[in-house]
Every structure is written in structure tokens, then in C-alpha cells.
Design brief:
It is built from four helices and twelve strands, in the order E-E-E-H-E-E-H-E-E-E-E-E-H-E-E-H. The chain is of the alpha+beta class and 228 residues long. The chain has one domain. The strands form three sheets. Strands 1, 2, 3, 6, 7, 10, 11 and 12 form an eight-stranded antiparallel beta sheet that branches. A two-stranded antiparallel sheet has the order 4-5. A hairpin with a 2-residue loop joins strand 4 and strand 5. Helix 1 packs across helix 3 and helix 3 packs across helix 4. It is globular, with a radius of gyration of 20 Å. The two termini are 20 Å apart. The structure holds zinc ion. Zinc ion binds next to helix 2.
């Protein structure tokens, strides 16, 4: 079974607001995430979630897919997509290509996602809280009681998060790594507040398939998936 390693470097053009909403102990509606060492991170779960969503946008309508995130609408609970097309099978049960790559309740993914960690931490200023106001678009005024706070990660222009082994593990077939890489090309914005201009960035990847460097996305491999 093919083994893959993907290195990711994420460079921000605007400050990110990353993390779970409503954390206790802070005024902020969003908080930056930190790992056990206190370093700012983009959590692995966010990398995985955004990447799966990007791959879904790319493949939806071209191949039969299930309907995340509700388990009862996902493989292997359903065997047809919304248009009535049969989902592919794996080990005798329905499993669409995205569940084969990213997993579902019935199929643990063999890919492992790892946190992206901030680089040049010593260049960072202290955290900042940004006040945001929710606007009523029709009346063009600020809505009452809709001031909210977002904690952005400390930011300087070109702030980077990276992990040389951001995605590791195995895929069923080599074409799956090309789907993952094509999905990475579609990721532009990270964390909360992106419609307020927060968290716009650029992803650079390097990838290895069974130890061999992959120089470019093989669009023929992706097309084969779409045609099969
Ligand atoms: Zn599925």
C-alpha cells in the first residue's frame, strides 16, 4: 500500500484567527490554538477538515460521494449518492473515494494529520484582541449587542506555520495522493473571521510517495478517479 508524506508551509497575508469558539476563560469568541509547549498552531483537525472539504468541492458531481458531516448520511450507512448513483465498495461495503482517503465512522483513515506550528516565534508581538462589529446590511448600521471579540494569533507580515510531516500514512492507491494535493491548491483562508479579512494565506507543499519526491500533481490520475 503506497506510503505518503506531505510537508506543508502556510504563509499568512492577513492575521489568522484560529481555534474553537466559545472557549472558557477568555473574552474572545475565537481563540488561537496552542499546543502543549505553548506554541501557536493550526490544529491538525482543521487541516484535515478544510482539506476534505476542498477535495469534496473538487469531486462533487464528478464521482458519487456521501454527505458528511452526519454519520447517517455517510459511508457505509448509505449506498447511493443524492443523484442515485451507487457508491463504490470497499471490503464489501459502500465507501466513496473521500471516505477511502479521509475515513468515516466505518473506516478509520490510514492518513495521520499533524499540527502546523508557528515558525520564528521570537519575532511575534503579544496576542491582540480585535473588536468586530456585526453590521445590519439592510440598514447599514451596527447591530445592537453584536460587538464581538476575536483573538488573532500574533501577526507579522509573512507569518508562517509549518510541519515537514503534516500529513503522513498510507493511501489505497497512488491516485489518492494527487487528489489530496489538488485539494491543497484550493485552500486560501484559515480559521474564523475570513469574511472579515482574517486568515488569508498561501499553502506550499512538498510530497513524497513511497520515498519518491512528487514534482507535480498528475491531473491524469485525478481524471482516472473521476472516470472510474
Ligand atoms: Zn463517503
Amino acid at each position: 500500500m503506497p506510503t505518503i508524506t506531505i510537508s506543508l508551509v502556510l504563509t499568512f497575508a492577513t492575521p489568522p484567527s484560529v481555534g474553537a469558539g466559545g472557549a472558557s476563560g477568555t473574552l474572545a469568541d475565537k481563540v488561537v490554538a496552542r499546543n502543549a509547549h505553548g506554541e501557536f498552531i493550526i490544529p491538525a483537525s482543521q487541516v484535515k477538515g478544510k482539506l476534505r472539504h476542498a477535495c469534496e468541492q473538487m469531486l462533487r458531481g464528478r464521482v458519487p460521494l456521501c454527505n458528511p458531516p452526519r454519520a447517517e448520511q455517510m459511508c457505509p450507512q448509505i449506498d447511493k449518492d443524492d443523484a442515485g448513483n451507487a457508491l463504490p465498495q470497499k471490503d464489501g461495503l459502500p465507501c466513496c473515494v473521500l471516505c477511502q482517503i479521509f475515513g468515516s465512522a466505518g473506516y478509520p483513515s490510514r492518513l495521520r494529520f499533524h499540527d502546523l506550528v508557528v515558525t520564528d516565534a521570537d519575532l511575534l508581538p503579544p496576542e491582540t484582541l480585535r473588536a468586530m462589529v456585526s453590521l445590519n446590511r439592510r440598514r447599514r448600521v451596527a447591530e445592537a449587542q453584536r460587538l464581538f471579540l476575536i483573538e488573532t494569533a500574533p501577526y507579522f507580515n509573512g507569518l508562517q506555520f509549518q510541519n515537514s510531516e503534516a500529513i503522513t500514512g498510507q493511501v489505497d492507491q497512488p491516485s489518492h495522493i494527487h487528489i489530496v494535493l489538488a485539494g491543497l491548491q484550493l485552500l486560501f483562508a484559515w480559521g474564523g473571521g475570513t469574511s472579515h479579512g482574517l486568515g488569508w494565506g498561501d499553502v506550499k507543499w512538498e510530497a513524497w510517495l513511497d520515498g519518491q519526491l512528487i514534482n507535480k500533481i498528475d491531473s491524469e490520475e485525478v481524471k482516472q478517479i473521476c472516470l472510474s
